[in-house]
Structures are given as C-alpha cells and as structure tokens.
Amino acid sequence: MNVSKHGGQERLLRILMVAPTSFFSDYGGHIRILEETRALQALGHQVTIVTYYKGSNLPGLDIRRTARLPWHTDYEVGSSRHKLAFDVYLAAQTLIEGLRVKPDIVHGHMHEGALIGGVLARMLGKPLVFDFQGSMSAEMVDHGFLDKNGRIYSVAHHMEKTINRVFPQAILTSSQQAAGILVEDFQVNESMIYPLPDCADTERFNPDVLSDSEKADLRRQLGIPEDRTIVAYLGLLTDYQGTPHLIEAASYLREMDEPIHFLVMGYPNVDYYRHLAGEAGVNDTMTFTGKIEYRDAARYLALGDIAVAPKISATEGSGKILNYMAMAQPVVAFETPVSSEYLAEWGIYVPVGDAQGLARALRDLAHDPARRLKTGASLRERAKTKYSWQRAGEEIQAIYYGLT
Questions:
Q1: Residue 36 CB contacts under 8 Å (≥ 6 apart), including other chains
Q2: pTM of the prediction?
Q3: Which of 151, 266, 284, 367 is least crowded, fewest Cβ atoms below 10 Å from its Cβ?
Q4: Using CA atoms, how far apart are residues 179 and 320, in angstroms rounded to an integer?
Q5: Residues 253-288: pLDDT tens digits?
C-alpha cells in the first residue's frame, strides 16, 4: 500500500465526494470523478461518493444515492430547471452521509457540489476541496439555459463568484485556462488554486487494444466500408460540443469526394443529429453509435485513424482529447486554450467554428499517413509522461495533507 506520511504517522483519510450529477455516466466530468476516486483508493484512502439516484454503480466504489424525485424521473444532461430539486435532495443525502462517514475532507465537484459540500464542511469543521470543472454561468450559457445579456445571468455569475471565494480551502482546476479564469474573472486568491489537468489511463486506452482482425470485425459490424479513413469522435452530442460542425465538415468532404467516414460515438440527441446528417446528405458517411460504455470506449476508438475535438466552449475541460492522445491518434481540434494546453505543438488546430477549415485539416491528414503516425506517437508519449492519474492522485493527496 502506497501511503504518504504526515506528522510522522501514516494518514489514511476518509473523503466524502459530492457529485451533483448522475454518476456514473459515460461522459466528461464523470471520468474525472471516477479516476480521481480510483487513484485515491490506490493510495489507501476511503472515498464515499454522494450523487443523484440515477447512474451506474461500479464495482469497488462506495456510491450513496439520493431518493427518487416523486414527480420527475428523468432530466437533461447539463443545466436543467429540475436540477434545483435534485440538488435539494442531494444536500439532504450529503448531510446524512457526512454524519455517517465523519470525513476528514469534503471534496465537492462542480459548483453545486462545492456549495453543498461547503455547508457540510463548515458544520463539521473540516476543509473543502473544490473540483472546478468550468465556469457555471458560462456553461449555462453554452447549454442555452441563460442569456449572457440577461438579468438572471448576472445573478448566476455573482453566485458563482461567492461559491468560488467563500467555501473552499483549495480549488483543483482541470486546466491552466480554468485557473486563469478563477483569478481574472472571479478574483480568487491564486495561492489556493491547484491546476490538476484531466489525465488518461494509458493502459486502458492503448492503440493495441484490438488486433487487426478484431478491428475488421468491429468495422463490419458498424457497416463502415474498408476503403474509408475513419475520423473518430467520442463524447456528448450537443451543439456546444460542435456536433453540427462535424456534420457540416462531412458535407464539405463529400463535395471534395473524399473517402472519409465519421464514427460519432455518444449521446444524447442521437436521433436529432442523425436526422440532420440525413438532411445534409451525409448519413452514409457518418455512423452514430449512440452511447458507448466507458469500459468499451478504447475498443471503438481503436478504429479511428484521426480523432476530432470540435468543442466550442472556451471554459470547460476536454478530457476526451487525452484519451485520443493515449490511443496514439492525431487530433484535429478547434483552437481553444484547453485543447492547446493538452496537445501543445502536436495539435492540428482550426479556428473555432470553422467547419470548412475542419474539413480541410481532416482531408490533409487523411492523405498523409506518415504524419498521422508520427503525430499520434508523440501525443501518446505526451499522455504517458505528463497526464498520469497515479501522479494526479498523489498530488491530490498532498493537497489533502496540507489541509488536515
């Protein structure tokens, strides 16, 4: 057991994580919660996760769920008017679990988790670590839930600023860009901010996860012709994630008569985007798989010759890029601060929102297999050396020890 020492004695901590989402689901911030938990457990710590009643239970994780809402059995990914009721239930369950677990550390994910966890931490006299995964008010704008010029936006922004500054003793950010947002936009003290980028499981996400024959079988199952270069995307299907730009890029590539096929893996809104692809005349060059379980993600990604990251949000993390890197795939991405931070000089960048530029970049890579191989190998090496969950767990542990 790899356990650091504090004050001359081994310190195994009880950690209560507050996750205001349907953990576990196969996208975005859920991967961060999962991998942080596994890394902390590997160091010997006890982690309890309090979350909504929906979501998948995973072996080896202590997950405590809220009661079901009597009047609403489902809700949208991201911002929703129903989230207030879910968070009231979450606050009640967090109090129950806090009194049961008696945590040494409260670890709140996202702003609702920081608010709920912060109140509990003060009640118990324990420190709060806030896992900041992007600006709450900016995300609400991205989801179309708020108008940035509206009156409610200013209220949400002020509430976010209060949560950022009042409750946590330490803030983890998923990127350097996010750390800059906290300092510049919310005037958070820089000394309490710890950039902790998302990481990649380079053993699970490995370009050799499938043999050539297994790839051929899976390709046939998906109905992808053998003579096509495959562009892979894995993540949420929403406008702010750039799904419409993928469809538009596919349309440009069809006009160029390029043998490129898009493997689009994720949810929600699958039928909606499949319909848009049909209207654009590219449904035969785009395969929408729907939801892919995290345990199967590497197998499906292994089919990709090129990966694509068309996210247009300037504030959220983009952990999918790290999995692409671990799979040794070259990545074409919209040029946001987060994508530039992860990919560095090995990224192939396109101006944000430029679907035609996206198509050109994909075409150029499709015609240059030597560049694809070299770029992919460099990105995998970068993922292995710079973005390790084991190292991230040790960094979180050190922050915990500094607060307890």
A1: 131, 389, 392, 393, 396
A2: 0.81
A3: 151
A4: 20
A5: 999 999 999 999 999 999 999 999 999 999 999 999
